Queue: 4 jobs
Job 1
Amino acid sequence: MSASTAGIEIPTQSRRLAAVVELLSSMRFAIALLTVICIASVVGTVLKQHEPINNYVNQFGPFWSEVFGRLSLYAVYSAWWFLLILAFLVVSTTLCIVRNTPKIMADLRQFKEHVHERSLQAFHHKAQAELPEAPRAAAERIGQALVAQGWKVRLQSRETPTGTGWMVAAKAGAANKIGYLAAHAAIVVICIGGLLDGDLMVRLQMAFGGKEPFRGGGAIAEVPDKHRLSDANPTFRGNLLVTEGTRAGVAVLAQPEGVILQELPFDVELKKFIVEYYDTGMPRLFASDIVIHDRYTGEARPARVEVNHPVEHRGIQIYQSSFDDGGSLVKLRALPMGASVRPFEVQGRIGEATTLTNGSERLRLEFTGLRVINVENMGSANAAATDVRAVDLRQAIEARLGAGHKTVSERTLRNVGPSVTYKLRDEAGQAREYHNYMLPIELDGQRVYLLGVRESPAEPFRYLRVPVDDNDAMDGFLRLRAALADPSMRAEAVRRYVAQAAPAGPAPPAQALAGSAQRALALFAGEDPEIERLPHGGAPRLGGLQALSAFMEANVPEAERERAGEVLLRILNGTLFELYQLSRERAGLPAAARDDKTANFMTHAVLSLSDAFFYPAPLVLQLQDFEQVQASVFQVARAPGKTIVYLGCVLLIVGVFAMLYVRERRLWVWLAPQDGGARATMALSSNRKLLDDDRAFERLRALLTSP
């Protein structure tokens, strides 16, 4: 490269560098970055962060879950693009501060007393007056008056062709520019504090320290060191689960690819978890009585952790985050859904699993949860029939059982008792989750057991209502369902129904009635020979009222369906009642009375029998007894950036208030000698135009006419 070429290239590169610096330090660029960060923060708030990848697959599907994963939306605040934008914002704001601070500081020191008289004529607020005083005396008087009003004043003398003139330069509200610096510095400070309190240090150790997430299971003590962080880690935030009577000292840091274990310099022993309730059953207090065992000094420090009242030890905050089951012992009664198998009992601990088998089929029973208190909204609402295919808490039951959305009905909170959650997993590994209440709940004037089921954690539970019998149990319904599955009992129920409906009538009508009753009952039981040819409507097995509806659509003209449906339902209800009486007779129980209570039971039983075809389990596990073991979930955090963030918030408040409520003003009064007195020219400038500027200037103008 020639010397002349080099002489041209260097200034060109300098201009490019200056242009880049100008762009980075521009306010519009910073605002654009701040807007992107706000949008990303909204995504990080709406979308749960650091969840297991299977949860996202269940929620969004395989394609979109992978797309969102590649965009790092499951860990927005530690995504490379978010940190890059944050870094650009810090650099941009810092350059803006560096570039403007010298100008602002110089402007704070200047009174701009060198302004010429002709320049004062260009201001919006200006005035002139003839004063009998000499210029110096008038300048001193006006200056003292302005100082008394809080202005900072500087006097300057100038030589003019007619004598010595005096300039009075005053300023007020200089804190407005300090507010500009404080607000911009707050952005930098808050971003730095946020980075220190984020998982940036964890990411750096994973990238350069040989650490990697743990994706397996098993005991924490068996996890290798490459999945553990030292207790000297300067910043982290994780969860610590401690069961009553035990102690733990390793926190879990959730990551999209698994978990990282964080060693703590102490162990937390949970003596007792305390929960107190209001009269309505809503929780009033969550607290944990703990003992902190220091690993270095051996000190045992008792403490109490409550919500919003954390405990600090060795710079680590211990928060009461939530609570969980610590391995409660539950005893369940297995009730077969229609199978000719006697009920049996099974027990286990929450978090464990066992195997159920009938010889040809194996199911893995996983005990997943026990809730002793369930506070639900039992306010009145329009109730639809519970259909386990589509009924969820949002449509029929959820409006009463504590839905998150508002309902038009009045909220009536009530504790409905304990509930158990479990999973049944088949030999292919597919699992469904079940949620059953221990006690019956009164809905629509009938006490029912609620049996919940869902296909995946991303779905809400759908509930099957099972009406209780005379003993407040499900046995009556289960006997009726077992009788419905027995062809001989169906035939006997039809015979009894026909004998009562047509005791002495002609044989042909009685035979026709018997055929209709037999057909209706077989369709309802899902065992009619022609049921496979009927439209299933997406149901895995056709039966119940859906089978009757499909049969009528296929065989009855549309104009006659309403009348035919009424007749068919009367026949069905009559035969089902006889079937119920027959099931009680076989069980050695007296016949049910023909009263309103029995009629109400049969109405709900018919709906439940119909919906039970969509209940995917061959048995129901009813909670009989339990021994509760509580566990506390603590959030442990070492947050060195917290103080920095607080400082940034203070700077931001000071800066915003200074810029919004402090008005920078400058006043000039030029006093020129004239015929033994002075000719005064006054001008006022302000960084913001307000409605009271005219009134304020009139008060200042009075200084010219008040010697």
Job 2
Amino acid sequence: MDRRRMTAIGVLVAAAGLAAAVTLPSFAGEGPRRSAPTADGVAPEVLDALGRDLSLTRDQAVRRLRTERWAAGTVTRLRAELGADYGGSWLSADGATLTVAVADPARAARVTAAGAVPKPVARGVAELDAVKTRLDRAGVDAGPDIAGWYVDVATNSVVVVARPGAEAAGRRFAAAGGTGAVRVRTADEAPRPLFDVRGGDAFFINNAGRCSVGFSVVGGFVTAGHCGRPGDRTTGSNRVAQGTFSASSFPGDDWAVVEVNGDWTPQGVVNDFNGGTVPVNGSTEAPVGASICRSGSTTGTRCGVVQAKNATVNYPEGTVTGLTRTDVCAEPGDSGGAWLSGDQAQGVTSGGSGDCTRGGVTFFQPVNEILQRNNLTLVTAGGQQDPAEPPAGGGETAPPASAPPTEPPADDTGCTGQVSRTGRIAAGRTQVQPDGRFFRVAGGAQEACVAVPDGARVVLELQRFTGGAFRTVARAGNADGPARLTAATPAGAYRYRVVGLVGSGEYTLAFSAR
């Protein structure tokens, strides 16, 4: 498909040996052991792995992660503000400087004002994506001498990776992209999917092949597409009946969804392969150059940096697009494992070249498209995250201002307010309002009301951004009539969550923000 994809690729089963980092749902009543986070909310295991693989002290790792959180929010805002002039962004090798490319030099001042370094370029990232899409369409003719291709925002080009001795073939294939935006580099890469998950948080497919859980979602988990097909049954590592594949896509895409039975409780954690777990607190996408860690049952937790996004890999089994390229090592048995940036879910291990003795290149498919395309809700250590929820924003204390517009009161639903929104809710689903974002208030009383169809039950939550995350400060449910909420709150950034409990249908939310 022609798009920038965010999915998950992994392993169909039993042969070549790659294990995955996983979040295996634990039995009801069984509490996972979790490590105490630092003052910045970062698990000690993540800091240890960053220290080992990136040669950072613990303080340096904390500072780098803090900068990366700020960069993720800043990039989200600038991409929206710059539009077609946005040329991509990346962090410097030390993680201290965020560079944002701009196709119109007149927009450079906006980048500087946001705290980033502008770089004038000839092409916006949308133009680069269009070039790569042309290569994706021609990919069926790429041949085995072409390892893959990806968008490289730092050089404002699309890179075709040819194997040694195949430079001419690389140039011929690059011509399919048109324009002068494509360059060819030579590398001894032979990416392959990472099959055969072994040991630790594994699950079995039809009592035969094994894979690993990627990330927990409400009702189950996501994993690799070629692990199974809809209807295939799974058992846990203890051989107890676990669930069924409800959706799967491979090749082109490579993601799958498993629905678990009532004996299993999905947990918002990832196995650290050191006797504990690391919390998952969201899925904000990290920028190019950010540090990232992968967990897998063959090689444990390994870290490196994000090298490129929107990469296409020409596997022997077929071409897979929309991957993220990293310099993290992996080995057979690591496939399907979880990728984290700090405490933010990033994706699921796909495949790669090399090993953890020589080093290598590993690709993962980002998790957010799996959530969005399947209307799934990520399970986090603190509860649930709305599947379409955008990053909370940059900065170390609060997201940027995003004041809600003034609108007329709601209609005859019984809920009125300065701002109103409508949506559709169902049991087990959550929506964030207004429009998946947040608003600021100067402090004082806040009032809100949500009206739902007869027979539907919801909970309305008011959340404030504090301590690096949104936290619930007031809650109200509906019994007979609308759910009404009133709270006296300090100045800050807030949002509402509408959580479906019973039934489904259209709802109207109205609220006043002072």
Job 3
Amino acid sequence: MNWTILTSFLFFTGVVGLLSWYKSRKNRFSTLNGFFFADRSLGFLLVGGGLLFTNINTATIIGENELAYTHNMSVMAWGMTSVLAMLLVSEFLMPMYLKLGISTTPDYLTARYGAGIGKLVSCIFLVSYIINLLPSVLYSGAVAFNGLFHFSDVWKTDHWTTIWILIWIMGTIGCLYSLLGGLKAISTSDTLLGFGIFAGGLLLPFLGLRYLGEGNMMQGLHILLNNHREHLNSIGTAADPIPFSTLFTGMLLVNLYYWGTEQYIVQQVLASRDLKSSQQGIAVACLGKLISPLLLNLPGLIAVHVFTHLDNTAEVFPKLDSLVSPPFIAGYIAAIVFGAALTTFNAGLNSSSTLFILNIYKPWTEKRGRTASEKHLIRTARLFEIMICLLAMFIAPFIIFVKNGFYTYVQMVNGFFNVPIFTIMFIGLVTKRVPAKAAATGLAFFIITYALTQTVFDLHIHFLHILAILFVITCGLMLFIGKLFPMAEPYQLQINTLVDIKPWKNRHIYSCILLLIMVLMFIVFSPLVLAK
């Protein structure tokens, strides 16, 4: 083990931890609003940093670089199309959420369809976090750290055992951070690490290109742009993990769900001090997504020219970092990767306890005629976080056995949960009389049918296209049920504004600029320009 790398890693991790503690030290979590929503006081930088770095985690850093190495730049579509989805959410969904004064996205579904649907969706969220989000973040973090620090060699253990140990170390640290810091500490560390990822996103490609050019960065860039040019293509074919056609079908739906419905993402925005701050924060996150290929994809492209063969392609990012970076910088980038794992893990834990306490446990106690104190609810939330953390740490090591690439696996499993929820949300938004039975039927039909297409029947259709097809069919099914059994009274929004809902005046100008850059990114990384 290189002790300089380890020292540098501990130094930068410690700095972020101390600054996060300092900014949140005055928080006394006597209320749920303080623990879950930072008293709805976050400015646009904290909102934007929280959104960006909760999204950019070890799963995306490891997974996207792996696919850029094994295939091409088509994987960048996940991040680029997020810009359009975020801007739509900023314009249409966030104003409604803040007008309603909701605490969780199932709160809207409860208001629209009734308490039963709200609880059902809360349970689906929790299952998704426990079996997919939290384990995948821990697993990818463990893979990254074993690649960076070679713990298998240091501890004289096999790869399987090493992954178990690292997962439990990271899970324990993440759980403690979430329990002690709440959302304010998570958002602060997200913002600090957001600045760090931009610096690291510039450093690692620079060092990689200099290594590739044998000390001359421009020579390295020449090699990157002229050799293996097929890897520079973002216009995916049917043979790639992300065919270009999927951008207009299932990927758009997945991104709309993720940025507009996913609790651990939306919770970052619900904690903003006003609508203007939330919309500005989303614009900051959009800018970050446009820059993110520097860290998420470019190292994988450089690795194509450095490593002719890797036994475990998931280790392409950490292996490149440890090879081309001086020890001090390697430790800094390791700290970014560690922070990326913990911030998403912490946000997932915090949002899980938010869903459980506000949508399941608190209504249950009230139904039994008891009024739980805020202190009791916070204690219960912390116990729940410990429980799901343990479950996630037990599940995470088994991701090592998945096929077809780690990142593709994560996105495919997400399909069981994300678009079904977005579908009933969408119908709830565009109609007023579709009843709860239509939402319940739609959820069951979508999840069961999608499961059959992924586990029993091989339709030879990309899973993102299948999600889009099922979205259309499920919408039709729900509308049909709504026609047969309409609600007696149409749904009406119940306004309960907790913050100022005056929108950001210049948002449309910045939105156009961001969308233009998004389109240009696809043009540059295409056979029209770089991938000739």
Job 4
Amino acid sequence: MKKHARVMVATLAVTSFGLAACSGDGDDGGDGGETTTGTSTGVVSINGTEPQNPLIPTDTNEVGGGDIVDLLFAGLVRYESDGTVVNEVAESIETEDNQNFTVTIEDGWTFSDGTPVTAQSFVDAWNYGALLSNQQNSSYFFESIEGFSLEEDSELTGLEVVDDLTFTVALTQPEFDFPLRLGYAAYYPLPESAFEDMEAFGESPVGNGPYMLAGPDAWEHNVQIELVPNEDYAGDVPAQNGGARVVFYDNLDTAYNDLIAGNLDVMDEMPSAALATFEEELGDRAVNQPAALNQTLGVPSYLPQFAGEAGLLRRQAISLAIDREQIAETIFAGTVTPAVDYTVPSIEGFTPDVPGNAVTQYDPELAAELWAQAEAIEPWEGTLTISSNADGDHQAWIDAVNNSIRNTLGIDAEFEAYPQFSEFLDARDNQEISGLFRAGWQADWPSLVNFLAPIYVTGAGSNDAFYSNPDFDEIIREINASETLEQANALVVDAQAILFEGLPGIPLWVENAVGGYSEDVDNVEFAWNRQVDVPSITKN
């Protein structure tokens, strides 16, 4: 994939772009053929959160909805548990120049309503996601394709349907890793019925993945969603159980109590109160492994208290005032690693040597000095707030961060809680955050740049700090145009150096995948990005 000679992505086994350190073996991949579903009959229950938006792939860019969308749809490629990329709906992805691609999809794929998955299914879905007036959260992911516009409605002229099973993609520049992104939800296909009433479709989506909705009332908002195996799924990872129930919990303590009592099968998070004990309590049913997942504090660019020279000094002081090592041990029981950059060590190409990252080290004396310099320019008023959702068990560590800031800088600092994750995300999108905000990121595909571009590029769908820096945007374009992974990763360091100069986000720590499962299920595996491999779970 990294060559700029002719590339035929027949299996897309790009292990060099995968994880540098992640436990667990991936699926075998296989060559297609007949599949079976339901080798066990039990319905697997797993914790989740109410999706922020209707379940439209191009409008879903948060974990609560994303985990469900990924069970309902299948993309051109998929990511195995170890981060390896293999073909899914695609039979081949070919290019001679890394700018013009010919995509051939396998014959025989259908949506769960019985209609065929065709080249048009992808082209129509991508055009819908990219169109400015549709205001899709993931429109940014089509920016590389010719015809994309952030200023006016424009069709993706770089997409062309050749026949029912073939379409071509023309990019605005060569991008060696473009095929690797195509397993992300933004690139999923849509059936013709979706375009008749997209709002209704989002409430009752029809996909081509291993699961489908259990019925028209399967999504009980703020309670749960019920999925059943899709018997027409044509891929290599069919459901090995009788279905999946995603239960939306208000807090993780309740979910953990249900897990211990046998009323919940799988948890992909642990409450802070259980972090020191869950491995002993669950034994070999506990999960604690490296993952492509991190936490930062977002700094809204629209807040005057963080603007200008004084604002930059404050951001630096706040970062230096946080004792990450102590919080990692006392709150997280060692299940997180203090961050030294904006990416994660488990992805190949990571380096701790990033210019400017000394600001991630705890230095209370320097923090107080920088805060005093900011005070001399413009006095601080009011209380510093850190916003997050109350249903995700973040209060303990946010209180610890606030204590560290309060003790070092001598200012008031408080937790601003939103009842549900979806409400918190809406506040971020609508510029309603009054201080700092929690910004967790679970990788979409195994790439260092995935921790930068969707969050900090001007106008990107997850740029909730509303950060804009032309120099940063240009380096991201250069990364995308790189001819090799090594060249791209070198530029990732330069891109992060720009971020450390402005601190639109304050890196906190890299999280392990911590979770567990009940005695009623087997074959539970957490993937490279913490996502649970639900189809492989068996339950009798």
